[in-house]
Specification:
With 380 residues, this protein is α/β, with parallel strands linked by helices. It contains 10 helices and 19 strands. The protein is globular and about 65 Å long. Zn(2+) 1 binds at residues 62, 64, 156, 274.
């Protein structure tokens, strides 16, 4: 199957101007000013890209693909993510994880859902662990999960949060060491993805580990960084990656990211949606007083605010959900870019930055604003 996109403005995410792009099966095979290519059999789709933008498929590295929640009882457990929820908002790659609950929900279920999303045409990975420590796992060992389960690329833990296990500095360092060694063995990033709450410790334990052990700062990946913003800026200034959560106030998140861009290297900043996770609201004495839910649509909405409200060039605004996160997870140059030999994960935007079409692994999943891909049980 060939797809030829003609005369489209390519942001790869760097601005490449007007180009033709040729896709064969699940790979980009050529990007050039003009591609003369014909196919005398069925299997060539030509897309007119005039007046539109072509950008890499979005990567969301913090998604509750089997649903999160549970802070307000079993009824508050959130349903699983559907493949079409991702495609509709331009997301072609996800990293799934557990959250507060690792009792009703399990790593087994998480891995199974990751496999299902792959079968439905997306690119998907996941993390072992949850908020809890010792970490919940599939094999009984964090290291073995990372080393032997192809979908698992790291481990999740919670720090500085009243729902966490209050992991000690030594336990966190040991967890990072296990993940790193297993990652080296399996040629995976072996990251420690850290839910970071508003607790008193902030990043103090993580920074102490980085300053006083030989574990690289790149092993630790704090998310929800607005909860400890100043600590996050220090972490990024020392070379670490920090991950913003788009949240419900996407304009506010974009503004905070734009401020961070003035203080830390932009290639250390990523963005994720926390889709299908819960957004509980706590009183000062840690009582639940409200509940919200993470939504996939907020990911690119934040990028639009960066470009429109914060006046970032779109090529720069796109990096936290394309090339930067791909590099951080070890997916680059297969993901997060538009180059020959890269995966054919592509998003076509209209000139008003609304989503037009989505190609995932070389298959057209959304065209002219209509999602054409189907969930397994859709319509039954």
């Amino acid at each position: 199957m060939f797809i030829k996109i003609e005369k489209i403005h390519v942001l790869a995410p760097e601005d490449c101007g007007i180009q033709d792009v040729l896709v064969c099966n699940d790979r980009i095979v050529r990007v050039d000013r003009q591609i003369d290519f014909s196919w005398d059999r069925d299997g060539l789709i030509v897309i007119d890209g005039r007046g539109k933008l072509l950008v890499p498929g979005f990567i969301d590295q913090h998604v509750h693909i089997i649903g999160g929640g549970g802070e307000d009882g079993f009824a508050s457990l959130i349903p699983p993510l559907q493949m079409t929820d991702c495609i509709r908002y331009g997301v072609t790659s996800v990293v799934g994880l557990l959250g507060t609950d690792s009792n009703a929900k399990s790593v087994q279920e998480l891995v199974a859902r990751t496999k299902a999303l792959r079968e439905e045409g997306m690119s998907a990975w996941c993390l072992t662990g949850s908020y809890a420590y010792p970490s919940t796992t599939l094999t009984g060992s964090v290291a073995k999960d990372i080393a032997f389960v192809s979908e698992i690329i790291g481990v999740k833990i919670a720090i500085s949060d009243h729902r966490s296990s209050n992991v000690s500095r030594e336990e966190l360092a040991r967890l990072a060491s296990q993940a790193r060694t297993a990652g080296l063995l399996a040629k995976k990033p072996g990251i420690v993805h850290m839910h970071t709450g508003r607790g008193k410790k902030g990043y103090s334990d993580v920074l102490d580990i980085v300053h006083h052990t030989d574990i690289p700062i790149s092993q630790f990946r704090p998310t929800h960084v607005a909860n400890a913003y100043q600590d996050a800026l220090q972490f990024a200034s020392e070379g670490g990656y920090i991950d913003f959560t788009s949240g419900n106030d996407t304009a506010g998140t974009a503004h905070l990211m734009a401020q961070a861009r003035e203080k830390v290297p932009w290639d250390r900043v990523t963005l994720s949606s926390d889709s299908n996770g819960s957004f509980p609201v706590w009183s000062e004495d840690k009582k639940l007083i409200g509940m919200g839910i993470g939504k996939m649509e907020t990911l690119f909405d934040t990028i639009r605010h960066l470009a429109i409200d914060e006046h970032l060039p779109l090529s720069e605004a796109l990096k936290p959900i394309t090339s930067t996160v791909a590099g951080a997870l070890g997916f680059y140059p297969h993901k997060g870019c538009i180059n020959a030999d890269a995966d054919a994960d592509l998003v076509i935007l209209k000139d008003d930055l609304s989503l037009d079409s989505v190609i995932a692994r070389g298959k057209i999943m959304m065209q002219d604003g209509i999602v054409t891909a189907k969930n397994y049980y859709q319509g039954l």
